[in-house]
Specification:
The structure is a homodimer of 271-residue chains. The first copy, chain A, is α/β, with parallel strands linked by helices and 271 residues long. The first copy, chain A, is 35% helix and 27% strand. The first copy, chain A, contains eight helices and 16 strands. In chain A, helix 1 links the parallel strand 1 and strand 2. In chain A, helix 6 packs antiparallel against helix 7.
C-alpha cells in the first residue's frame, strides 16, 4: 500500500489497447496503487465528425505544433465522441473489472481551467493566418481538491480532455498536456504517457533509435527530435517535471500490461 | 439557508428551455438551496441517431409503456448525445452562470445501479414479441454517498440517465424514474418534473383539465389518465413518494423561472 499517485494518459490513437490498460490498471488498484487516468479520443472524434458530415480540420502553429481546429460545431462533435463515448465506455470497462471509476471532463466542477485561445495563429500553404472562433485553451489551473476528494473516497478519476474557460465555456485541450497538469497538481510520482510507439526516437520512425533516458536538462534537445504529436508529449513531460512530478515515461500502449511494463522502465524515461 | 434538497428533472423534449431552468437554478443555489439536476436527452439522441444512420426505435410494453430500444450500437449513440452533448453543455451553461456544476452519468462511481432487462417483452402490430440484446434497466440502488460528498463540497450534481448493471455494463434508463430514485435516496423534500406541458391533464391535451393536486392515494387513478410519456412521470412520482420524498410536482419547463414557478404550486402537485 503506497500513497503515491500515478497519472496514466491513454492515447486516443488507433492501436492503443484500452482493454489491456484497463486490466493492468485494475490489478494495480487492487494492490493499493492510486491511479488517475486521462484519455484522448482523436480517432473517435474524427470518425464521428466524418459520420455527421463535419470532418476534422487540423492546423499547424508557426512553431510547428499541430492541433485540432475547434469551432462551436466541432466542439460538440468532440464532446460527444470524447466525453460521451470514450469516457463513458472506459469507465464501463473499468467498472466491469471491479474498479470504481468515475468519469469527469475538465468542465465538471471546474476540474481543468484554461485560458481560451479565441484566435490562433496558423501556417497554411506557407502563409500565416489567424483563425477565430476557436474553442481550445491552455490549462492554467487544476482543481486538485476535487480529485483528492474522489481518490480519498475510493473512486478512480477518469478525465476527458476538455477544460473550462474563465467564462465557463467548454474548451478542447490537448490530452497529453492535460495529463501533465493533473500530474503536477497532484504531486504525482509518475506520469505515464502511453502511445502507439515504444518511446521517443532519435530518428523517427526507426525504433532502434529509441532514447532510454532523458535527464531533465536534456528536454529542450528532445523537443527537437520529436515529430508531430510527440512534440506535445515531450512538452507535457517538461511541464510535469517543472511542476514537481518525479518522472515521466513515454511508453508503448499496445503491449500486454502496458502500465507495469512502462513502470519497469520500458520506454523513454524522462527526469 | 436550508438543508433541504430539491431534485429537478429537465425534459429532453423539444420546447423545454434549459437556459431558463439553468438561470432559475443559479438564482436558487445562490440563495443557499441545494439542487440536484437530472436531465433527459431523447430529442438529441434521436437527432444524432438520424445523423449517423442509426435512427431510434421505440417499443411498447404489454402494459402500455413506451421506451427506446437500445442495443449496443444505439447505446453508443445514446451515450454520445445524452452524456457527451446534453450533460456537458448543461454543465457549461451552469458554469457560465457561476454554478459549480459537475456532470455524472449513473455509471460514474456506480451512481445508479440497475437490473438489466436483457430481454424485453413488446407488442408490435398487436403481436407479443421478445427483444434481446437490450441495454436498458430498472434502477435498484443509488450511491447517495457520492451525491452527498459532492453536495457537501459545494458541487451541483448534474446527472445523465444512464445506469450500471450488476456486471458494470452501461444501461439506458428512464430519466424521470432516475430522478425519482435520486430524490428518494437523498430524502429530497421535492421532486420537480419539468416538461413541455403545464401538468397532468384529465383529458390530454386539453390544458383546462389539468389536475392541480393529487393525494398519494390517488396516484393509481392518475396513472390511468396519463398518456404516453406522462405515464412514466406519474410512475416516477409514485416511486419517489414511496421512497419518502414529501412532494412531486409535474410542471411546465417552457416558462420563465420554471423552478420557482413550479415550487409556487403551478403544476400538478402530487403527495
Amino acid at each position: 500500500m503506497t500513497n503515491s499517485i500515478t497519472v496514466v494518459k491513454l492515447g486516443g490513437t488507433e492501436g492503443v489497447d484500452f482493454s489491456a490498460i484497463a486490466q493492468d490498471a485494475a490489478k494495480m488498484i487492487a494492490e493499493g496503487q492510486k491511479l488517475v487516468l486521462v484519455h484522448g479520443g482523436s480517432s473517435e472524434a474524427n470518425a464521428l465528425g466524418e459520420a455527421v458530415g463535419k470532418p476534422p480540420r487540423f492546423v499547424t502553429s508557426p512553431s510547428g505544433y499541430t492541433s485540432r481546429y475547434t469551432n462551436r460545431e466541432t466542439l460538440e462533435v468532440f464532446a460527444m465522441a470524447v466525453n460521451g463515448k470514450v469516457n463513458t465506455f472506459l469507465v464501463e470497462q473499468l467498472q466491469m473489472l471491479g474498479v470504481n471509476a468515475l468519469g469527469l471532463s475538465g468542465v465538471d466542477g471546474g476540474l481543468l481551467k484554461a485560458k481560451r485561445k479565441s484566435a490562433i495563429r496558423i501556417v497554411e500553404n506557407g502563409k500565416k493566418k489567424m483563425l477565430r472562433d476557436d474553442y481550445t485553451g491552455k490549462i492554467n489551473d487544476v482543481n486538485a481538491d476535487l480529485l483528492n476528494t474522489l481518490l480519498d473516497a475510493g473512486y478512480v478519476p477518469v478525465v476527458a480532455p476538455m477544460a473550462m474557460s474563465e467564462k465557463g465555456e467548454t474548451l478542447n485541450v490537448d490530452a497529453d498536456r492535460a495529463a501533465a497538469e493533473v500530474a503536477a497538481a497532484l504531486d504525482a510520482d509518475t506520469l505515464l504517457l502511453l502511445t502507439a510507439v515504444p518511446g521517443l526516437m532519435r530518428e523517427f520512425p526507426d525504433e532502434s533509435t529509441m532514447i532510454k533516458e532523458i535527464p531533465q536538462a536534456g528536454i529542450e534537445k528532445a523537443i527537437e527530435y520529436a515529430e508531430g504529436r510527440m512534440k506535445k508529449k515531450v512538452l507535457g513531460a517538461q511541464e510535469a517535471l517543472n511542476g514537481g512530478v518525479k518522472q515521466v515515461i513515454i511508453a508503448d500502449g499496445r503491449v500486454e500490461n502496458p502500465i507495469s511494463n512502462a513502470l519497469a522502465g520500458n520506454g523513454t524515461v524522462i527526469g
